[in-house]
## 1
Amino acid sequence: MTKILEVRDLNFSWGDNHVLKNLNLDVQKNELVSIIGINGAGKSTLLKCLNRILKPDLGKIRMWDKDLSNFDPLNLSKLISYVPQSIRSNFSMDVFDVVLLGRRPHINWRIAEDDREKVSQTLRYLELEDFAFRKFDRLSGGERQQVIIAKAISQDPDLFLFDEPTSDLDLRNQIEIMKKIRKLVENDSSKSALIAIHDINIAARFSDRILLLHEGEILASGAPNEVLTVENIAQVFGVTCDVQLWNGEYIRVIVEDEIKQTK
């Protein structure tokens, strides 16, 4: 397999709080990798370090075997698109134009017809055509989240960084969006995705690999059935559970009860 992203000895701290400790990870081409862990485990911080929103204390990040620190913001945005956990922007513009903002790294002097067509294709792909000329600031939270995902897809990067991309969506749309991301990664010759997510079962269903973050370190990395064990879930989340094979295809985690704390 071809390595798209390589992270070595990554460290990040907020003051005295050592959030990420000597993290090492790789993402291969056409791979969907989910990051799971408790609140405050460093999932969002890791994505922001990869996108250079935050500057690591130590460590190297390479993409396509090139040091990411050597890329200027424009060229970096051609390689990586990022969808944050919360959407603070309140654009008073049509959805089509919001998604078109994702094409900015590729636009020279003026918007080309190819850019508009890429936006149209993306809206069709996510089944958002009916939203195209609605005002973004009049959409619901879930609708806005889908539009921001569309903006990231229209950016046409090699690596998607999604921070809780389904947090504001209803159950049906959670599944549909993950299917679309999965298909996009599988079918494009150069794309991969790294997703921070809370829903263990969605991660198990759609991921090639899962990273389990615990106390600033990667406790486990591997296929869902390798990482999502009863022992690992108890250690990280403090709950008892049962892990089952669902439909003969993917595992499902069923939480039973909180573990009794002992002195």
## 2
Amino acid sequence: MPLHRTGHSRSTQAMNELILETRGLSKNFKGFTAVDNVDLQVQRGHIHALIGPNGAGKTTCFNLLTKFLEPTHGSIVFNGVDITAEKSAEIARRGVIRSFQISAVFPHLTVLENVRIGLQRFTGTSFHFWKGLTALKQLDARVLALLDLVDLRAMAALKAGDLPYGRKRALEIATTMAMEPVLMLLDEPTQGMGHEDVDRVTDLIKRVAEGRTVLMVEHNMKVVSRIADRITVLARGAVLAEGDYATVSSHPAVLEAYMGSEATELQGAH
């Protein structure tokens, strides 16, 4: 049964479980509707996947949630607070962290130094680079613990730019984790990866999601079928279907939206 409810039928218990909710979220670009009246509900502690064909509005939705774009209308509620009018930095301070916001890897710094920068938020030295790194050495134990989590501890001294692509994505997730996210937004975390890296990063997402909430845009249906607790399908900017993987992968309208080889992949990802 879909989680989405409307009006007064929404129970107090369900409201307490929701960490993120959008109501009628829409974005128009000069007459083109990219996101169309989207009601999205993300439960605390879930891995929630946002999927759909190319051009469905998934990334635009992410841009609205993090206020890289302003909604044309609709509202965004996070932890029971309406954040629709807040700026991107204010939303990030609430703990809504999108991976690329703080994880654009610094290629000439080491793996350890990249994650340490993410931790500076908690030291009061975020903008005091001229003071040098001596005061930040105390953070290294926490950095190494995060690198352990993403299987990068052995690579701590390597330059980030020298990492293989899949390991760079793992470093991005570690840097995101350094910001202590309440809600992690991951945009295509396995894009462009070979099978081995996809499996490694899928396992990593499942591991770091323990005790946290993840909202992810992902094209790889095998990844979605393995780790998503709930899935929202977008098509032409609107919600087409919602539910667990078995529900959405057999939904006639979803199969029609994907069509062809993509529909076959959707059904065959179990």
## 3
Amino acid sequence: MDALEIVKEYYEHFNAKNWNGMLNLLDENIRHEPNQGEVRIGLENFKDFLAIMDKCYEENLSDMVFLGEPNNSKVAVEFVVNGIYKEADEGLPAANNQKYVLPAGAFLEVQNGKICRVTTYYNLPLWIELVSK
């Protein structure tokens, strides 16, 4: 499988809430660069992140556009996050099942058939505004 196919499968697992499927595509030393906060290194830290996401958010990604590059190692993805804020996440507003629709993007790197970096970007102030209405 090439990088583009691996990343597409990763996001298919995300939308299916198949966390083990996602994790199986990640390198043991995955570098997760979130929009806010500290970089996470390693599968255990990524699992912890997924547990928080699963507890606090119900998300599905739509309008996905995947862009690969000639070296077949990096993929950019643009998408729309369609979500429900189920439970308050640390340092964020109170949750009351608020719905939100938020544009976002990610950059992923693949080496040796595994995703070794995931960098995610979205507009946090806009998200806070959407869930604070």
## 4
Amino acid sequence: MIHEQQNYKVLQLHMQQPEIYRDIFIAELAAIGYEGFEEKQNGVEAYVAAKDFDLAQVEALLERYKAISETSFTLIERAPENWNEVWESNFPVVEIDKQLLIHAPFHEVSKDFQYRIVMEPRMAFGTGHHETTFLMSKALLDIDCQDKTVLDFGCGTGVLAILAMMRGASTALAIDNDDLAAKSSRINASMNKVDVEVIHGDENSIPTRSFDLVLANINRNYILSNMEALAGALSSGGTILFSGFYQADKQDIAAAAKKYALVPLDEMEKNEWTVLVLRKGNT
């Protein structure tokens, strides 16, 4: 969550094909402590507390990606401001298949939906606005969650774990390596009156028990590096959902999943972002 009473550095990234690379840079910057992001036509603005800004980190990041995305940056310093007020003004209601409504506490909504999730607009990923969260939520609406045990790995705001519990799951464990995301998930679960266990951790935090349903809306590389752990956490006959990657990466994900007896069942795509639904057979 961006705090009001401190100065911020605003990193303005200008990139070729921002529609492809914008979310990659957002994920990378979030991993090194950037707290808020605003999408721009030619890139993204990223906010970090002035005391935490590290020029060498930025230069190293751009160097890593220069072969695929020629990216430049400008830097400005911004005085304290009510960032939550700015964020709230850019937080629209999300409707999915006339079944699910995702909105902030300050929205006045009168439409009748089967499921309604209230999300505090904090700076954690997963409010339903991004294509991958939208796709994961949409896929989850078509999956039987009744009495299922659920693992939401890379939970962000916790919206997927919350939806699974609303749809009848018996338990939900949400894990994220970002402390802000874990805190956000706890707040949102409480606000929606569902019981979700939240852990600030990584793949090493996945318990030894198995789950009927595993949700992983992360990114291509993180999915691939954690495929063994995620497949191992899934019970035989269980279902796993992967998203956070582009259609072009689908074959790599499916090939890696096949090694762990994960068989594709379904897929959806939106603006080149993809969700894969797979089931675990006998190993």
